[in-house]
Amino acid sequence: MDRKSTFETEAEERVRKSKALVSAITVRFAGDSGDGIQLAGDQFADTTAVMGNDFATLPDFPAEIRAPVGTLPGVSSFQIQFSDSIIFSPGDLADVLIAMNPAALKVNLAQVKKKGLIVVNGSVFNEPNLKKAGWKTNPLEDATLRDFQILNVPLSALTQTALKDQPLKLSEVERCKNFFALGMVFWLYSRSRDHTVEWIKKKFAKRPEIVNANLRALEAGYNYADMTEVMPVQYEVKQAALEPGTYRKITGNEATAIGFITGARLANKTMFYGSYPITPASNILHDLARHKNYNVKTFQAEDEIAACGAAIGASFGGELGVTATSGPGLCLKAESVNLAVMAELPLVVIDVQRAGPSTGMPTKTEQADLLQVMFGRNGESPIAVVAPKTPSDCFQMALEAVRIALKYMTPVVFLSEGNIANAAEPWKLPELDRLPKIEVNHPSAGKGPFLPYARHPETLARPWEVPGTRGLEHRIGGLAKADLTGNVSYDPENNQRMVEFRARKIARIANDIPEATIDGPESGRLLILGWGGTYGVIYEAVRNLKREGITVSHVHLNYLNPFPKNLEKILGQFEHVLIPELNMGQLLFLIRARYPKVNASGLNKVQGQPFQTKEIEEKIKSIW
Amino acid sequence: MVGPADSVTKLPHPRQDFISDQQVRWCPGCGDYAILATMQRTLAKFSIPKEKYVFISGIGCSSRFPYYMNTYGFHTIHGRAPTIATGLRCVNPDLSIWVVTGDGDGLSIGGNHLIHCMRRNVNINILLVNNRIYGLTKGQYSPTSTMGKVTKSTPEGSIDYPINALCIAIASEATFIARTLDNVPSHMAYVLERAAQHKGVSFVEIYQNCIIFNDKEFDPVTGRDSRDERMVYLEHGKPLIFGKKKDKAIRIKRLRPKVFNLADLGPNEELLVHNEQDPEPNHAYLLTQMEYPDLPVPFGVFRDIERPTYDGMMDQQVRDAIKKKGKGDLKELIYGRETWTVQ
């Protein structure tokens, strides 16, 4: 294992075992999508959280709900890195892989470190399963796995033995094997079982026989690792030195839902959420639908267009309209978003990006919608764009999206990613009384005629008048608007003026957002410029290289339109700017267009998978 | 004929209150003028103040409607008005919301939204101004154009089988369904009033003459010389009687409506009697199948039933959740079920 700092042995009564203290571990669970892999991974992450490590997760599952059992497309995996120091990435290659069947081994073998430990469920390495997974020979019996430590454990058979007196069907027994495996991994990494025990009791409270079976499988797995000689070494990862405070485990989509509910509350608004189910944004809708008592109204629309239209209707009605989708859905919403641009109404559009184009790879991650949200509408149509950089950062950026939309009367795109949406990390909870109120003023009738397009001198935002207010009756719409009155206008000068107003309004947001900060020296040979979910791997790559004596700087953008005011100045201080993105160079395109003197190049990946730290490190070394 | 339900002599508001300062820009002789004037007169009869009205439209000639009403208005995008109206209604129960759409806007590009808005029973009023032609794009056939219709885009005649707007409404289980026409203002006023009073979605088809691209399309039915024999006004609880001398009735034979001379019928023979409150859609559906030239075309209220509104139920679920769980507490939300502390 990596970064082994101390090594201690202690005599055991039953089997002689040793205990090793390590700094960081990456574990990967893999199996059929029906094997409860995500569940086992979540339980491991929960326990890791409670035990005080820092961690980051990478769930990776197929779009098929239940692909044929034992086949390659049906493989689901869950990776977690946990550490005694601050980390933001789920780790590159795994120290340990738990492969529940031959297909899981085949799909995940490339994700394991050389000399790493692979626990395989030997019970199912039979002829038909090997064939389904495309193994010509049994990898447990030839040289395929010679670079790894293989632990062949008949998980299915051992689970059956452990549960032989339980009143369960064989298929139900088989489903408990994920807890047997989890029990083994708990022992291996000196994890407490308490959290999972409590969870099982609560989760299956209505079926005591399932509670018993799962508890027994968990216990049996733990004891198997403890009592037999299969695992000679037990590892321990000390608590991380996280900042003092109260923490919870959070995924990006959870933080998004919580963030928008909080934003609506801070603005004293009903939150209206129009959405059409789409991976990987759907569970934001599920989360919000359970929080109606926070004055949240969720509307599952007939399509993406209606979802966006209804959100605009809610904004027109003086409340907070939010709509959410992923790439293909964003294409459908473009026309509606443009209506909100023209009518100058607040609107938040959540885009949880996934691998495209078209339907692409729905459950896989990518960052390739940036240029679409910047330019994918007819006419001159600038809108604000923000992007969270980690799962917990979704909370803060949701508040920002609400604040900007309401203050500037504009659509704001909240550009999340599949990888952020489903990944989990510890979140240091904010102090509630420090969250700033979001001020909203709705006009009432004054002396003169009401001018719906009279602008605020500083923000250039128009007033947000609410239907039902006496004396402010007026008409808005998608046709070109006359300055001040908002009446339909085909006047050439007026149109130029209004287009420029809308552009300046978005540009002025730069006065109202934090300046970019630099991690590392303020000038030098190389700056790494990232945005969104690449934060964790860039952070770790820069830190690792520093240990090797290579010092580069890192700027990470949360605000993509407008850019922070000081960005140009920062970029000008470096000989070279490297922009790693999970696309073919979209931020690079924007940076080159805006700041042509900057010497920028890209590191691009479109495989549906996040960067690995070493990919960033190698690229930096190659241009260093 | 059914007269307007109006017996009020002094209106709560002068009609002028509802006329905006924008110049009306429909073609001279367009049927939309009559619809606009009737709407303004109708709203003047209610005691609701004008700031409580919102007109929302899509794209097309009739979708310019909001600009001419001195109320709140939103001229949105093609076919999407029902979606915006739904969102508005869901956050504001106090407004009177009217969607004005056309046969292209509502039944072609916006067909999906129209269906779903009606099935949900969102408490809004939808006026579908049907002239069986695309006017604003200068004369292509529409989804309600008749087969064989020769237009700019169908020089050899349309091969699109037309859609029946009221059938769509019935299939979507709209709770209020009516048809009226632009050249009998008193009937239109009556139908608009009824639509306004209905709680739930109100769907009104208005036969409207496009004087430029489809002039006299409805004349065989609604023209002065033909209307007595080819229109039948629906009155709740009364048989469908029509004809200049009120001498014709409808009977159902083998599940199909047939015209009979009253004089030929014995005293015990059953006439088709209108029941707008029938909870089943069959009766209203059958009426939508009465089409020119085989049968007189029905006008009036086809259906007026009660069902909980979508927006009302949405409000109720929020109220129930607050009652059950208490008003959401931010700390509880943010902290979640499980936290740990780092010292």
Task: Please provide a written account of the structure.
The complex is a heterodimer of chains A (624) and B (343). Chain A is 35% helix and 23% strand. A 7-stranded mixed beta sheet of chain A has the order 12-11-13-14-16-15-22, with helices on both faces. Chain A has a 6-stranded mixed beta sheet with strand order 4-5-3-6-7-8, sandwiched between helices. In chain A, helix 7 runs antiparallel to helix 8 and helix 9 (252-266) crosses helix 10. Chain A is globular. By secondary structure, chain B is of the alpha/beta class. Chain B has a domain at 15-217: Rossmann fold, CATH 3.40.50. Chain B is built from 11 helices and 12 strands. In chain B, helix 2 packs parallel to helix 10 (310-325) and helix 3 (103-109) packs across helix 4. The longest helix of chain B is centred in the C-terminal third of the chain and has 16 residues, at 310-325. At the A-B interface, helix 1, strand 10, helix 9, strand 12 and helix 11 of A face strand 2, helix 2, helix 4, helix 10 and helix 11 of B.
Q: Largest beta sheet of chain A, briefly?
A: 7 strands, mixed
In N-to-C order, the SSE pattern of chain B is HEEHEHHEHEHEHHEEEEHEHHE
Q: What's the multimeric state?
A: heterodimer
Q: What percentage of residues of chain B falls in helices of 4 or more residues? A: 25-40%
The greatest interface here is:
A-B, 71 and 60 residues
Task: Calculate the terminal CA-CA distance of chain A, rounded to whole Å.
Answer: 29 Å
The largest beta-sheet of chain A arranges its strands as 12-11-13-14-16-15-22
Largest sheet of chain B: 8 strands, mixed
Determine the structural class of chain A based on helices, strands and strand pairing. Answer: alpha/beta
Mean of all residue-level pLDDT scores of chain A: 94
Q: Give me the Rg of chain B, rounded.
A: 23 Å
CATH topology of one domain in chain B: Rossmann fold
Task: Report the count of strand segments of chain A.
Answer: 24
Read across the widest sheet of chain B, the strand sequence of neighbours is 2-1-3-4-6-5-11-7
- CATH hierarchy class name of the largest domain in chain A: Alpha Beta
Number of extended strands of chain B = 12
CATH H level of one domain in chain B: which superfamily? Thiamin diphosphate (ThDP)-binding fold, Pyr/PP domains
